Fold:
Amino acid sequence: MPTGCAQRKRAAPSRELTKAPIRPSQIITAKSVENAIRVLLAIGGSTNAIVHLTAIAGRAGVQVDLKKLNELSDSTPVLVDLKPTGSHYMSDLYAAGGLGACCAS
Structure:
């Protein structure tokens, strides 16, 4: 992200989290994991990301079972056609306005 760009300035609150003594286990919840999975499904994310996300969730004590994953998959539309199976790159999503633009549509 270029220095001085608007997105970098909006990210300032998240940078503040790095200064606070907050552990991942304090902010990773079942709802936050569900949101992350939905975003991943909506952008056509890789199956490898699901493996990592379920591992992170498991370390935080949040279980993701296949039934729940299938329910989320069935009810989440694919909004972006990203590689590895799609036609576009993550840089294309960024150039089109990023995840915020995707969620606003």
Q: What stands out?
A: The longest helix spans residues 30-42.
